[in-house]
Fold each of these.
Amino acid sequence: MTQHETAPTTSELADEPQSTYDAGLNARPTPMMEQYIEIKAAYPDSLLFYRMGDFYELFFNDAIEASEALGITLTKRGKHLGEDIPMCGVPVHTADDYLQRLIGKGFRVAVCEQVEDPAEAKKRGSKSVVKRDVIRLVTPGTITEEKLLDPARANFLMILGRVRGAEEGRLALAWIDISTGQFRMTETAPEKLYADIMRVDPSELIVPETAFHDPQIRPTLDLLGRIVMPQHPSLFESSTAEERIKRYYGVATLDGFGEFNRTELSAISGAIAYLEKTQIAERPPLMRPERETDGSSLFIDPATRANLELMRTLSGNREGSLLKAVDRTVTGAGARLLAERLTAPLTDPEQIAARQDSVAFFLGETSLAQGLRAALRGVPDMPRALSRLAVGRGGPRDLGALHAGFQAAHLVRQLFQGKDLPAELAQACRAILALPEDYAQLLDQTLAEELPLLKRDGGFIRTGYHPELDEMRSLRDQSRRVIAGLQADYMEETGVKSLKIKHNNVLGYFIEVTANNAGALTDTDEAKARFIHRQTMASAMRFTTTELAELETKIANAADRALSIELAIFEELIRHTVENADAIRAGAAALGVMDVSAALSVLADEQGYCRPKVDDSLNFAIDGGRHPVVEQALKKQAANPFVANDCDLSPEGDQKFGAIWLLTGPNMGGKSTFLRQNALIAILAQMGSYVPATSAHIGIVDRLFSRVGASDDLARGRSTFMVEMVETAAILNLAGERSLVILDEIGRGTATFDGLSIAWASVEYLHEKNRCRALFATHFHEMTALSEKLARLGNVTMRVKEWEGDVVFLHEVAKGAADRSYGVQVARLAGLPDAVVERARDVLHRLEEGETSGKAEKIIDDLPLFAVVAKPREVAKPIQDSALLNAVQDINPDDLTPREALEALYRLKQLSL
C-alpha cells in the first residue's frame, strides 16, 4: 500500500471538526492545520511526518516533494488561504521503508507523534486537537533503524569545529556513529580538510553557518554537496562546550578525557549538541572521544582513494572494489572494522606486527579459526542493537541480538581456553571475559525462543519467569478451560450436576441452575453468602460469586495486563542494558577484532598471500606481486592465471635499480594494473593483512598518491587535463621521502610536446625534490633517456611479442624501454572498422618514416579516405617530364577564350589516354 483515501479517521474526529473542515479564503485554519503549521515552522529544513491515526501525513510543499521522491499519489485535504492543501501519507507500519528512500535522497525528516490519547482531547471539547510533538529528527547521520543501515558500513555523523580568536585558522573534526557509539576526533587544516573528511566518508557533515563565508573552507563544502548541513554557530560555542560535554557524560570534570584545545572542544560539543537537537529526549550512549593523532595512519588523498577503488569502484559499486575482494568477515561489526582498517592503514610497525601476529595465529590454528567463524556466523549486530535499545527505538529482537552475542561469546571463551594468544587476541579475550555474566543470565532466563519485532505485540517473555504474567496469559489464552475448571469446582461443592457457568453481553459471566436445584445455592446462610442472586427466570435461576466476578474482570483485562507486565519487564531489561553498555560494547568490539583476524587468515590461505615485513626503512621490495582484485576476477572467469611481477624501489635493494621506475609499454600491456597492485599491496600490508606476493619488504609509507585514469569536473569548470594537472600538483607539493607515488600517463591530455615537457619536468622534480618512491608510466618514449641523467631512476617495460602482424601481451615487467606503443593493434582488437585501422597503419608508417607536420598535406591529399576502401590503393605514376605535364604548363588560362579553353581541355584528354 502506497497511499490511502484522505477522509478523517475516527481517532482524528476531535482534531478536525466537520464544520471547519473546508476552511474558505477568509476562514481561520482548522485547529489541526493550525497545529501542523506551528510545528512545521520549527523544522523548516525537514519533511514533517505528522501522525494521524495509522498514517504519517505530509502537507503543502512537504507533500509535493515527498510524493515525487517516493512515487506516491499526491492528494488534497481542505483549503488554506483559498488554495487546496496538497497532501500525501505513508502507513506507520511501513514508515521505515519510506524513510530509507527519503534519507537516501538526502532528505531530513521530523517525526511528529501523538503524545496523548485522542479520548483525552475529546474531554477538552469538540474543537480540541490531540497533542503532538516532534520526538526525533531523522537525518542521514543519526539513523539507528536496522532497515536504514548498511551492516557492512559505518554511518558517521561528522562535525567541523572552528573558533575565532587566538586559535583562528585551526580546524577540528569530530565524528560519531550513533548506531555503535563510536566517537573520534582529530585536528585538521584547510589544505587537508577534504582528504580528512573523505577518509571517514560521513553520511552527514554539520558545519557552522559562518564556515560558508570562509574562503579557505568554502571550496571544500561546495565539493561535498548535499551531505553538508549548516547549523547556527551557537551549537559550536567553545565557551560552553566543556559544560555541555560534562553534562552529557554525567561527569564533574573532563580530566579523564584528556587535553583538548578550544577548537577540538568546539567539534566535540557540536556533535553532542546536534545529537541533543535530533534525538530530542533520548541520549545515545557514546564512547568518550578518542583522538586520532596526525600521522598515525597512512594519508591517502580523495583522488587516490577513488583511483585505487578501495571501497567502491569508479562507477560506485562495491563489487570490484578492494574491500569486496578481501572481505571474508561473517559479522556486521567485523565488516565495518575491516573497512575502517582499509581506509586508515597504520604507520606504526609495532601495531602492524601485532595485527599480523593475530592473522598468523589463525593460520596456524585453522580448526580454531573455523570454530570461531562458525560461532560468529549469523550473530546479529550487537553494537547497533545496543544503541537502538538505549535510545528507545529497540525491540525484543534487539535484546535477542544481545542474547545471541553472549551465547557466541561463551563459545569463543571455550575455544580460546588455554591457548597462548598474541597480544591483540589476548586483549580481545579479556574484553569478552569481562562481559557481564549476570546480565547474560538474565536475558537467558527472560527471553522467549521466538521474539516479535515490536514490543507492543507481546509474547517475548519466557513462560515461567513471572507467575502473574503466566496467569494472565492463561486467562487470556485459555479462559474457557479456566471457566470449566471453576464450574467443576462449583458442581462438586453444591452437588448440582447440571450447574453451568454461562456468559452474555448483559450479565457477563454467571452461574445458572434449574429452579428445582436452586435450593442448593440458597437454603443456607453460608450458601447465600457465597452465591449472590443475579436473575430469576421461568425455569432457572442465575447467580454469581465474588470469585467469578474477579475472574471475569481478570479475563477481561488479562490481555492488557499481560502486555503491561511484559512492557515493565522490557523497561527493566533496558535499564540493565544501559548500565552494562560499556562492557557490552567492548565485548562486541572484541568479537569484531577476532572476526577480522580470522577472516584475513582465511583470505591469506585461500589466495596464497604472504606475511610482509614492514619496518621503518625506505625499502619497497615485492617479489611475485599480484593485483588482489584482478587475480580473483580471473579465477572466477576461469581465464589465464594472473602474471605476477616483481617491484623493487628500495634505495639499497639488491638490484639498486632505482627508487623511481619509468614504465613504458603498449596499451593493454598491463601498466595500470602493475601500478595499482603495488599501491594496494602497500595498503594491505600497513592495515595488518597478508599480501598477494611471494615475499614483500615494505618500509612505512606515510603518504600514498595515485594519479591513474582520466576524469573531468565540468561542474567546476575543469577539463580532464585540468583535473590531471590539479592532482599532479597536489602530489608534487605534498610528497616526501616516505611517500609512494603512482603516476600514469601524465601530460597526455594536451599537445604532444606540451605533455612530454610536463611529464619530463615532473619526473625530474620527483627525483630531485620529493625524493620519494615512485612508479611512473608513460607513452613518451623519449623520457627513457632520463635514466642516463637521474641516478635513482630505472627504465622498465611491459613485454610483448609480435606474431604474424598481431601483438601478444605477456603482462611481464622487465628492465628496458619500449620503442612503440602498439596503439593501432589495440584499436583493431577493440573492433574499429578495418578501413580505419588500415588508414591508421598507413599514416603511422609515413610518420615513422620522418614525415613531419609541415608535410602533412601529403597525407591529407589522399582524401576522401574510405571511398573505395575495398580496393587496394594504387600508387600514382610519376608525371615529371611527361607530355601531359608540359602541355598543362604551357596553358595560360587568363589568355583563353571559352572556345579555346574547351579545345585545350580536349587536347589534354587525348594526351592522358
Amino acid sequence: MIMQEPPFRDPAAPLHDRIGDVLRRLTIKEKLGLLHQYQAPVERLGIGPFRTGTEALHGLAWLGPATVFPQAIGLASTWDPDLLHRVGAAAGDEVVACHHKDPAGAGLNVWAPVVNPLRDPRWGRNEEGYSEDPWLTSVLATAYARGLGGSAPDDDGPPAVLKTAPTLKHFLAYNNETDRCTTSSNLPPRVLHEYELPAFKQPIESGAAVAVMPSYNLVNGRPAHLSPLIGQVLRAWAPGDLLVVSDAYAPGNLTGLQGYHDTLPEAYAHAVKAGLDSFTQDDDRAEATLGHLRAALDQGLLTEQDIDQAAGHALAIRFRLGEFDPATPYDDVTDSVVNCPEHRALAREAARRSFVLLENDGLLPLRDVRKVAVLGQLGDTLMEDWYSGTLPYAVTARAGLAERCEAVFCEAVDRVTLTAESGPVAADPAGGPLGVGAQEAGLFDVFDWGGGAYALRSVTTGRFVSVDGTTLVNDQPGPNGWEVRQTFRMEERPRGTLALRHISTGCYVGAADDGVLCLVDDADQAVWLAMDVVRSGTAEAARLAAEADVAIVVAGDHPLVNGRETEDRLTLALAPAQDAVIRAAREANPRTVLVLTSGYPLTWTTGDLPAVLWSAHGGQEYGHALAEVLFGDADPEGRLTQTWYRSEHELPDLLDYDIIASDATYQYFRGVPLHPFGHGLSYTTFGYTGLRVRLDGDVVHAEVTVTNTGPRPGVEVVQFYTHQQRSRVKQPLRRLRGFEKVRLGPGESRTVELRLPVSDLAFWDVTRGRFVVERAPHRLMVGRSATDLRLSAGFEVEGEVVPPQRGPLRAACHDAYDAITFVDASRSDGDAVRSDAEGAWILFREVDLTGVTTCVARAGSTEGGMITVRLGDPLHGPAPAGFPVPRTGRYDHQAIPVSLEGVDGVHDLYVVFENEGVTLTVIEFGAGA
C-alpha cells in the first residue's frame, strides 16, 4: 500500500497552502518549537531540526577552513555588483556543502550581508559594512545576497528554490559598539527615511534577502527588536514572507540591560507582536525561551494566531529552501567546492580588484626592480577577523612579492627585555608562565596595534603572551578569540619604568610570591618594569630600506584589536610605532610605498610619500593580488566607499546619528577630506567630455563620453551625483545617483549613460509624512569622486511646492532642534521628543496659524514643567501660548489646552522647553466657537 504524501510535501502546491497545511497539523507546543534559533524536529511528521545563523559575511565562517574573500568593505571597494554576486554564489556553495556534511552545524539561513550605512568610520564593525552611502550599500548588498540565494545575475526575481536564505544585518541605526545594548540612536524622520531605511529596501524589495536581524541598540528610546517598522515598513516591502531573527542574546536584554519590560513573557510577547519570529537566546538550549513564550500564551499576552504567524514565517523560509521537496538543485553540492580552484581564483580576483591607489607620484607601477624591502607588522602575516573563515592557506605580502623579485623582510618591531626590581622577566620555553628573577632576561617583540594596545611575543617560543586564568603565559599564535586576552596597555611609572595593564580584564600585571607574573586588581601591586630596547624596529627597517630598490611598508590594523565588534575606535590614527617605521623607511629610501591594510580609514603623519595603496584585509590571496597591482599587471580598480577624514576631530559625536544636522558623510561634509568618497587613482588618465542632460517625462537622461587619455589600459569608475539647488529643507551637497565601471585601452572612448527616475530626487517631507519631489533646479555632476567632478549641467524639475503646515504638529516631525532626545511615545508605537536641558527647543517652519485661537499640547514629565510657544525666535520671539506640564508617568501624556491670542498668518514656530525632562508628543490647533 502506497502512503499518500501530505499536501505540504507537494512542490507544485502554492507556498501559502503548504504552510497552512503544516500549521494545521502542528500542536501549539510544536509551533512554539519553531520560534527558537534551534527549531525542534517534529518526528511524527518527518520534519527535521532547523538552525538559523550560519555566518557568511565574506565567505563561509566559523566552520573550519573555507575560501576567505576580502572583508566586506574591501569587496565594496571594487564597485562591482557582478563580482559581489559571484563571491556570494561561491560562499553560498560552500555553505551548502558544509550543510550536507554537517546539517546540525551549518544551517542554510545565513546571517549576511551587513547593510548598516557606514556613517562613522570609528565604528568597531566598520569592516563588516559596504559604504557610507545607503544606495551604494543597497546595490552591493542585493548583488551579494542574490549570489548567496542562488539567483542568476540576470534573474528578475529570486529563484524557485533558494540555495541559502540571506539575512540582512542589523536593523536599525546601528553604528556604535560603545554600550550598544543600552544606547538609543536619535533618528529624525528624514534621516530614517533618506539614509537608514534605503540601505534595507532594495535587498528586501527585490527578494534577494529573505530575512532581517534587528540590532542590539534602541532607536528613539525603543529597543530595535520591538520596532514597529518591522511590520509597517520591512514586511510591506517584502514580496513574500520575511523571517525576522533576533541577534544573539538580544531578547534577554529586553528585561535585562534595557529594562524595557518587567518580565520575559511580557517582553517576548511584545517582540512576537512587533514581528520577531526567531529567538537567538541561550544557544541551543531552547527550553527557557519556549517556556516564556508558553507563559505569554497562557497569560493572554499572545494568541495562537500570533504564534501561527511567526511560525509561518519560519516555515516559509524552510519551504523556499526546498526542505520539504523531493529534490533541490543543490543536492549534489559536495565539500569538493570548498576552497576549490575556481574559488581560489575568485578570491585572488576579488583581492586584486579591491585595491585602492590613494596617492602616486609615478613610482607605481614598479619598473626595473630587482630587490624590495618588505617592512612592517603586516608584511608577512594575514589576519582573520571575527567573521572570517579559517584561512586554508595564506599568501602574504612578502610571499607574493618574493615570487617577483628578491624580497628582504623585517617586521620592524622593537625587540626588548623586561626587568623588574627583583630581576629580569623570562618566558617558559614550553609556553608556560612568565616569571621574574631569571638568571637571563628573555627577549620579547613588541607589536603596536594602535589606540594604546600592545602585544608581546616571546622570542624563545615565537608565541604571544596571553593570560590563562590569572597567570601570564606565552602560548598563543597572536591576538584571537571573542575575548582577546593577548593585549596590554603600558602605563608610565617613575624612573622610566612602566606597568602593564591587561586590556580585557582591566587588571594589572603583578608577581606572585614565586615570581610568576599574574593579574592583580590593585594598581599599587603592579610590577614596575624597565623596558630596554635590544633591537630597534625602525632602525632595522631603515637599514633594509636603504639597501633595496624599493621599500614596501605594510601597515594597518589587527581586526581583533583596537576596534572590532564590542569595541569602537577612539582615533583614526595609525599606530604610532607603525607610523614611525613609515617615516624611517621614507627617510632611508625616497622610493617608499605605503601599503595600508585595514578595515577602516586611517591617517598617518609622514607626508610626501611617493605612493600609498589601501585595501581591506584581503583574504588568502592577498599577497598575489598585491604583487599584481604593484607591478602593474593590473590597474588598481578600487574606489573608496567612505570618506577618509583628516582626523577624528572632523567627526561628530559617535552617537550622533543625525547626519543632516551634523554635516556628516560625503553628502553633507563641508571640509576637505584626506581622501573623498569615490576616490581612487589609476595608472592611466581619463578625460570627460560631452555631458548632456535632458528631462524626458519622469526620467532624467544623462550621458558623458569618457576617454582613456593615458598610455596604458585602465579602469575608471564613472560616478554621477546630483544636488538640489533650492529647497524648503537642507539638501545634500551631493548624492550618488549612479556609476559604471569601464575598461578602456589607450585612446579608447565610451559613452556612459544614466537613467534616473525623477522620483529618486524626492526627500522626506516631515510636514506630511511622505516623500516629495519639489519644484526646483538641480545640478547633475559627473567625475572620478565626490569632489573630483569633471563636468556638470543643470536641469529643472516641475515638482510640488510644500505648503505651510497647519497641524497637528507631531513633535518628532520638526524641522530643527536643540538639546532634545527622541523617545518612544508608547511602548508599542510612535515617537516623541524629550528636553535634555532648560531652553531646549524644536522648530516647525511655516506654520499657518490663520484663524487659530486654541492650542492643545500632549505632554508629560515625571517632575512637571513648562512649554512655551514662541514665534520667529526661541529666545525673544512673541510667546502666544504656554503649557504647564503636570507630573505624569512615562507614557501618560496629558492633553493641555490653552488659548492663543493675537496670532494669525504663517510663522516659524518654536516650541521651547523651559525644563529638562519634559516629553512632548503632539501639538494641535483649532478655532474657538
Amino acid sequence: MAEALIIGALVGDAVSKLSDAIIHVMKTTSQFRSKLTQLHQTITRINPIINEIQKLNQLLDRSKKETDMFIDQLKGAEKLVRKCEHIKWNFYKRYTHSLKLDDLNASLLRFFQIDVQLQEARDVKEVLVVVKDVQRIMEDHRRSGGRASSVPLLKGNVIGFDDRVRELKVLLVKDSGVDDCEVVVVSAAGGFGKTTLVTMFCHDPDVQEKFGGNIYFATISNTPNLKVVIKNLLQKNQGGQQPDFTSDEDAIQQWGSFLGEQKSAVLLVLDDVWDVSVVKAFKFKLPGYKILVTSRSTFTQFRKYELHLLNHQDATNLFRYSAFSEGGSECSNIPDELVDELVKCCKRHPLALSVIGGLLKGTHMANWQIMLNKLSEGQKSVLDLDEDMRLRLARSLDVFKEGSEIKECYLDLGLFPEDQKIAATALMDIWISLYKHDEKGSATLNNLFELSSKNLATLLPIRKDFVAIANYCDENAVMQHDMMRMLAINISSQEPAEHRKRLIVNAVGQNLPQLPQTINARLFSISTDEAFSFQWNDIRAPKVEVFVLNFMSKIYMFPQFMQNMESLTVLIVTNYGYYFSDLHNFPAPKYLSRLTSIRLEHVSISSIIASILGLVNLQRLSLIMCKVGNSFDETNLKTPNKFPSLLELDIDSCDDLLTFPTILCNLVRLKKLSITNCHELSSLSEAFGNLTNLEVLRLASCSNLTVLPETMRNLKKLSIIDMSHCLSLCNLPTHIGELVSLRTIHMRGCTGLHELPVSIKDLCPLEVICDEETSVLWSHLKDVKVQVTEEDRFSTFLKIMPRGMHFN
C-alpha cells in the first residue's frame, strides 16, 4: 500500500509538471499554440481519470511496474514540450515538432482508450473474482446454521422507530469513559419490533461512523450453539477460513483474543437472547466494546431499554401502510372509524397491526367488519399481552376460507427451524407434490408474494442482478417472525398427534419425544440439535408425503421408520450445523419407490449416493453445499439403472466438484441442469453431449470453468444457457450454431470471452442478456436481440475492498 501511494505521487507529479510546461511554453512562444492548447485539453480531460485510477491502484496495492510506462511517457512529453520553447524560425524543426506534438496527443489518447481499458478489464475481472469469493463466504455463513453474519437488510417502510433509534444512540454511541464492556438490553414482548429497532440502529450513519466495519450481528434464538455462532463471527474476519474449537469455552476465548486485536470500537448485536448466560459469555473487559441485546426478558443486571407499544398515530400509520396499497383508491371505501376500531383491537402492537392489516389488504369492507367482530371477542380477557396477541392473530386467520391454499402454505412454513431462511425451491418441491404447483415455480412464487404482502412471512430481497432463467424460485427465500412461526405450529398442533395433518417435532438435548405408534400426517418434520443422539421408536407413517429433517450433528442417522413411509414423495434433509454431516441408515430404494424429490444441504453424499441412484421415480435432485468427492465414480457404483426418471438436477455451492461426472451424462430424460457457485468446476465431460433432452443449462458463477465441450452441438432441445460470471470462460463451442432450439443466452460478467465462433450467426432468433462490455461481441449480428443489464462494479468494488473486507 505504501508503494502504491508513492507511485500515485509520482504520476501526479509527472502530470503536474507536463501541464506546467505546456502553460509556460504557450506564454513564451506562439509557434505551437494550437497544438499545445489541444494537448493541454487532453491532459485536463484525463487528469480526473488518472486520480481515480490511482485511488483504485492504492486499494488494489498495485506494484510500481504498473505505471512505469505511463510515467516515462509523461516525462518524455514534458521534454518535447520544453524543446518547443527554443524553436523560433527553423521551419523544418517547427514542422517536425508539430508532427511530434500531434503524435504525443494521439499517443496519450490511445493510452487511455486502449491500455487503460485493458488494465480496467483486468482489474474488473480480479474484482469480480473477489466478489464471487465474498458472495461464496457469505452464502457459506447463511447455510452453516450459525445464524451470524452481516447486519440484515430492512424490508419496506419502518414506521414509528426514528425516535427510538435516537434514544438508543444516546446509550451506545457516546463513549462513557469506563474501561469495561457496556451492555444494553432492548426488552419487549414478541412482535414489538426489537429486531427491527437494532437493525435500524446498525444502519444509522452515526453508528456506522462510530463502529465502521466492526459491527457484528448474531441471532441467538432459544437453542444457541456458541461454537457455531463464534465460528461465523470469526470466519468473517479470516477470509472464509474455518476456525476450530474444542468446546464452547474455547470458542469464547478465541472471540476474546480477536477483540483484543481490534484497534477501534466494536459493536456486537445479540438478537433474540433467551438466557442471560449467553450475554455474560460474550462480555470482556475492553474499552470501546459494546453489546446490544434483544430479549423478551429484562436481564436486570444490565442497562435496559424498554421498547413500548406504538403511539396511536404511528399505530394508525402502520396499519394503513399494511392494509392499503400505495396510492390505492380502496382506502376511500373504508371508513376512518372502522380503521380506528381495528387499530384499537390490535392494541398498537406492531406485528399484529402489520399482519391484520396485510390480511385485509384488497378485501371487501364486509371482511373488515367480520375481522373486527372476530378480534372484539374476548376483549375483557386478562391474558398477558403475548398470549392475547397470539389469540388475536389466530382469530385473524379466520379470514381465509376453509381449506384455503394460502393458509395451508403459511402453516407449511412451520416445518422449518426458527430464524432460518427457507429456500423457495424447497417449498416448491413440497407444493408441487401437495397442491400440484407448476414446475417452473410461478404458482409457488405467487403464493410467497401473497404471504409476504399479508405480512405472514418475509420474502427476502432478490439479488439486484437477478434475471429469471427457467425457475422463478431459484433466487428467492423467505423467513418467518418467530411469533408467526409458533402460531403456525400451534394451529397445526390442535388435534392429537396421531390425527394431525402436520406433525412437527422438536427434540432438544437428551429429550426423546414419544411418538404415537401410527401417525396419519401428510407432512412430518423433525428438528434436532447437535446433542441429540437417541434412536426413534418404531412407528408407522403410511400417509406421510413430505418428510423434513433439520439437524446440526456431524453424524446423522436416518430414522428406521422411514422404511414405513410408503407414500413419501418429498424428502428435505438440511444440516444447520457448521461441519458437513455424514449420513447413515438411508433406506434401500425399495422402501422409497414413490419418492420424486430429494433436497440435501450441507451433507456428505458418499454414503447414500448408491441408494439414491436406484430411486426409479426420482424426478428432482438438489445438492446444496454438499461434499461430493468421488461419490459419482463409476467404479464405486454398481446400480444398473441410475436416475432413470430424473428431470431436474441442481448442484449449488459444492466446492469439491471438479468436473461434471461422466456417469451423470447418461441421464437421457434430464431437462434442466443447474450447476451454480461451484468455483472449482473446471470442465464438463465430453460425454455431456449425451444429455439430448436437456432444455435448460445453468452454469452461473462457476469461476474456474474455462471451456464448454464441443459435444454440446448434440443438445438439439437446449433453449436456455446461463453462463453468467463464468470469469475464466474463454471460448464457446465451435459448432454452437447447431443448437437449433437455443433462444436465450445469459452471459453477464464473462470477462474472459473475447470472440464468438463463426457459427453463432446461425442462431436466430436469439436473445442475449449480458453486460455492456460483452455486448460488443454481439454488435455485428443484426438478428440478435441484446439486453444490457450493467452491474455497478465500482460500487461493489468499494464495498468489499476497504476495512479488511468486512461485510457490514
